[in-house]
Amino acid sequence: MKEKSVIISGTGSYVPEKILTNDDISKFVDTSDEWIYTRSGIKERRIAAKDEAASDMALISARRALENANLKPQDMDLVIVTTVNPDMLFPSTACILQAKLGIRNNIPCFDIEAACSGFVYGLEVASKMMKSGYYKNALVVSTEKMSSMVDWQDRGTCVLFGDGSGAAVLSVCDEKDVGILDTVLGADGSDTATLKMPAGGSLMPPTKETVEGRLHFLQMNGREVFKHAVKIMGEKSFEVIERYGIEPGQINLLIPHQANTRIIESVAKRLKLPMEKVFVNIEKYGNTSSASIPIALDEALKAGKIKKGDYILFVAFGAGLTWGATLVKWH
Ligand code: UT7
């Protein structure tokens, strides 16, 4: 079967209304706006309502992406959700989203759990399935309610994360050499301890002790993650660019995972890209895990920062450890 191009035909995003500023956080943990901003670049983050689940945020961003693509839920042949905050352990948030979108044809719907690299993993899985010729349109929706898993007593982590969702509609297209050009994915499972939520799974099901031990919250060795992120995001950016056969200087816009401004700046520096060619919105939303790239992509498009023919590079790094870089040529 002739290989098709796969383009991002629509994007959408959603962040909850409630804003939690650094000053707000400094009222309940020992921190300051100055510390948070200089160490991470974050000023504020969004917090979902108590009864607002990952699938509710996904529904809004997905509807916006479908509208932007001028397609209907029923046109989708595949739904992939990426999240570390599923509504529940099972069924998948993708199936819940399918029902909420009213998609009644029996298409495959499943979640990908690759932490902050989820969107890049989702793009690769969806686009490779689509290149088979069996799927014409797919939804890749990244949705994260990080506020439900951060330990609001731990200043080392609670200042960093936020809630939100970003979605992309992917469509096959006959034009050659456009859309998703190439992706590099990877993982190193020997380093699971640096970023994890220990309890709640089959290894440590919930008990009074796990709750009292605060083991149902995210735990992170920030310094370790930082070190790996800087190295790997730089390396993988180069790898995907070189493999496709262009120069780093040809990248028109780098859209990196938004975990820390210092990480982003170091990746840009390695690629010798000026910061005008890097999209950064971490100041407003903090780290929204896998949702950060699709939210940023949607904002970059709406801000007119992407035009036809541009080379866009997504690069992500997260728990697992996982990573991924995707090179896109805008259509
Ligand atoms: O999405 C992928 C996953 N996440 C990431 O990529 C995050 C990667 N890591 C980071 O972004 C950074 O490591 C952090 C922003 C988390 C921390 O920055 P850092 O420069 O690595 O700080 P640190 O962890 O080395 O801590 C420096 C000091 C410590 O005090 P001592 O031991 O030097 O006395 C911390 O206790 O800052 C202290 N500290 C804080 N102080 C005020 C840690 N958190 C806070 C805080 N407010 N919120």
Please describe the topology of this protein.
Elements: E1 5-14, E2 18-21, H1 22-25, H2 33-40, E3 44-47, H3 54-69, E4 78-82, H4 93-101, E5 109-112, H5 118-131, E6 137-145, H6 155-158, E7 163-173, E8 179-187, E9 195-196, H7 208-212, E10 219-220, H8 222-244, E11 253-256, H9 261-270, H10 282-285, H11 292-302, E12 311-318, E13 322-329
Parallel strand pairs: 4-5, 4-6, 11-12
Antiparallel strand pairs: 1-7, 2-3, 6-7, 8-13, 9-10, 12-13
Oxa(dethia)-CoA (UT7) binds at residues 31, 35-36, 39-40, 116, 155-156, 159-160, 195, 222-223, 225-226, 229, 259-260, 287, 317-318.
Keywords:
single chain; 331 residues; alpha/beta; Peroxisomal Thiolase, Chain A, domain 1; 2 domains; five-stranded mixed β-sheet; four-stranded mixed β-sheet; 11 helices; 13 strands; globular; binds oxa(dethia)-CoA
Summarize, please:
This protein is α/β, with parallel strands linked by helices. The chain is built from eleven helices and 13 strands.
As for the CATH topology of the largest domain, it is Peroxisomal Thiolase, Chain A, domain 1
- Element pattern in H and E: EEHHEHEHEHEHEEEHEHEHHHEE
* Share of residues in strands: 15-25%
Total strand segments: 13
- Bound small molecules, which ones? oxa(dethia)-CoA
Write down the Rg.
19 Å
